[in-house]
Amino acid sequence: MKTKRFFFLSLFLLSILQISEAQEADFSKTSQLLDSLEKHNKYMGTILLAENGQIKFAKSLGYADTENSIKNIIETRYRIGSISKMFTSVLIFKSIEEGKLSLETPLADFFPDIPKSNQITIDHLLKHRSGIHSFTNDKDYLGYNTEQKSREDMLQLIVGGGSDFEPDSKGEYSNSNYVLLSYILEDIHRKSFAEILDRGIVKPLKLKNTVIFDEIDTKQKEAKSYTYNGGWVLEKETHPSIPMGAGAIQSTAEDLVLFAEGLFGGKLISEHSLTQMQEIQEGYGRGMFSFPYYDKKSLGHTGGIDGFRSMLGYFPEEKVAIVTLSNGLNWNNNDVLLATLNGYFGKEVQIPSFLSYEVTSEMLDQYLGEYVSEQIPISFTFVKEGNTLIAKPSGQPDTNLEATAEHQFEFTAVGAVFIFDPEKGLLTFKQGGGTFQYQKK
């Protein structure tokens, strides 16, 4: 579950690096890095790595509730966002195995009012190949996401969003797909999605902390979520009636490990169904993605909802599960994952210094103004507030930037780097392996 924001890339990819021989696991530097992240207000959340069901590394950072100084612990419950889609996909495959559905079942059997529903199948919904517009991409989404919505309300939004492309012509991420799958599950089982989840996954695996979330209650070990803007700022709470099976589940790191091991261990669906979930077409599986790490491969999903960011990955060959659940992120989550995996596989862990570059309000004047690019349609307007440079991407929320070198600023949570050449009025923007050139208007 995501909101439309240019800085947040659609998929979370672990870097493929030069292959080297594995060494013995050593999490000492991983732990040092995480301690430093906590000290410098870069990360709040829980990280856990397990092998064959045995926890090899677990650490919690920061606060579940900053206002009341309630610390995150291993048992803290987080909203897991789009990791929920893995659960929904499993429930669909269980229903297929029960003879209630097939991958070829047309959407029109359930929702004929959706554009091109007679051409869209369950398979297209699972693999994000339906063409159905994602309601979370609309500008007004953040204006209603905290409000309860009925099924009729959501269907009206999805029908009104129309179709972005011909079904099965390509893959493109859409939260609408998995909301519809939730409704289909409710129709064929004649139960609520929460009941279907509990009966189909939670009880068979004896999960203790995996449910459809409600209003956050920190007394029940539930974390609030935050964004960083000179300090941790509390985020609003999305109502669960909106994301449904696309992102309405809360869980713990330990429960997610049990889920991954149960899924890949054959406790939930057949080997044939699991193989179908793992089939990747144009980057999309059926409820999961493939994440490379050196010469190895994990399967899983990422998630983002409100201020929560999460990732669940499972290495089938090594029987290793890794989970990161964050309720406050001011750093690149990819670096946290790599540091944990590097510690386990005996590779080098880099510990940054977190030294900031001092700038004055007067120094920021040379960067202010609007910058445009011929490469991408996103423009940036830069303003200042005191000694802080603020980026205002077109159609996106404002973002405070951190000065890291002369003429260089970063938004480390997503790996965005801005390098200015004030004499020429140029800006180089880097993110996710891409480099884009901008000119000041």
From TrEMBL:
Protein name stated in the entry: CubicO group peptidase, beta-lactamase class C family
Subcellular location(s) per record: Membrane
Signal peptide: 1-24
Domain of life (superkingdom): Bacteria
Entry keywords, A to Z: Membrane, Signal
Species, as recorded: Algoriphagus faecimaris
Domain Beta-lactamase-related residues, every copy: 47-339
One cellular component (GO) term of this entry: membrane
Major location category of this protein: membrane
UniProt xrefs under Gene3D superfamilies: DD-peptidase/beta-lactamase superfamily (3.40.710.10)
Annotated InterPro entries: AmpC-like (IPR050491), Beta-lactam-related (IPR001466), Beta-lactam/transpept-like (IPR012338)
